[in-house]
Amino acid sequence: MVVTDLDGPVEKIEEGDFIKVIHGHGDNIEKLSRHVPRMKGIVLGTTQSIPVRKIRNIGGFTDGDRSVLMAIAMGAERVLLHGFNFERPVDEPFAVKLEKMKVARDIINSIRDAEIVLR
Q: Own/partner pairs for 76-80, CB < 8 Å, 24+ apart?
């Protein structure tokens, strides 16, 4: 499963053979309109706002902590996070992303219902 707001390698996500959880927010509406219709396989939608139709607010602040919350809601006892780095975010602006990673770390560190493993 990949949880994303489409700020990464969208073409790989479109074609990938995995469940796609696409997070919509005010800054990515154009990307959603362009890429989601081309997605293959199972595509689910999330929001940080009021749920609309089949779009759900599952909590979380970043893709990483949102994916952990979703996995736990589905009954996971152990969650492996790949490609999630609290100290070295890959997106710009770096200072803003670093602050977001602090919030994500706090959310993940507060979880007691499952083992979280960063890879």
A: 76/114, 77/113, 77/114, 77/115, 78/114, 78/115, 78/116, 78/117, 79/114, 79/115, 79/116, 79/117, 80/117, 80/119
For the chain, strand residue ranges (E) read 2-4, 20-24, 43-47, 78-81, 115-118
Give the Cα separation of 48 and 56 in Å (integer): 8
Residue 75: predicted pLDDT: 93
Integer Cα distance of 84 and 87 in angstroms: 9
Q: Which range of residues forms the domain containing residue 28?
A: 1-57
Task: Tell me: do 46 and 65 sit in the same domain.
Answer: no
pLDDT tens digits for range 25-46: 988 999 999 999 999 899 999 9
Residue 102 has pLDDT above 90, yes or no: yes
